[in-house]
UniProtKB/TrEMBL annotation:
Protein name per Swiss-Prot or TrEMBL: Universal stress protein
The UspA domain, residue ranges: 1-137
InterPro entries linked: Rossmann-like_a/b/a_fold (IPR014729), Universal_stress_UspA (IPR006015), UspA (IPR006016)
Entry similarity comment: Belongs to the universal stress protein A family.
Matching Gene3D superfamilies: HUPs
Organism: Gomphosphaeria aponina SAG 52.96 = DSM 107014
């Protein structure tokens, strides 16, 4: 029986697929689901695209929080965690804190050289997590 599941969401279009996949699992009503999103650190926010205007870090946080709250209604027994840092490291850290039995995460489907350059969060989570990982394509 799965007692605790950490769900890493990036709040992009494939987050819907992750939620739908999660809903297909036969979960006990006592299963705790932690919906998490990892923001860039405040200091690093927006440094890659210096020419483009960015919303404030606080408004980004609020926007992501609203998106995650929309999923709360669909998933009984869930809570939200929004943290800042490296996505793979933070998802694994939360899984360790909550002693998760499973991590559910999406993948962007990167291949070849692009996967090496942009790094794969899901690949790093699969490699480094101490619990099972379900990767949703």
């Amino acid at each position: 029986m799965l007692k605790t599941i950490v769900v890493g969401l990036d709040c992009e279009e494939f987050s819907e697929r992750v939620i739908k996949t999660l809903q297909t699992l036969h979960l006990n009503s006592l299963t705790k689901i932690i919906l998490c999103h990892v923001l860039p650190t405040y200091e690093n926010y927006g440094l890659e695209d210096g020419d483009k205007p960015h919303p404030s870090w606080e408004s980004l946080y609020q926007h992501r929080e609203q998106q995650l709250k929309a999923y709360l209604a669909q998933l009984q027994g869930s809570v939200i965690e929004i943290v800042a840092g490296d996505p793979a490291e933070e998802i694994i850290r939360l899984a360790n804190i909550y002693q998760a039995d499973l991590i559910v995460i999406g993948t962007r489907g990167l291949k070849g050289f692009k996967r090496i350059i942009e790094s794969s969060v899901s690949g790093q989570v699969v490699t480094d997590a101490s619990c099972s990982v379900l990767v949703v394509k």
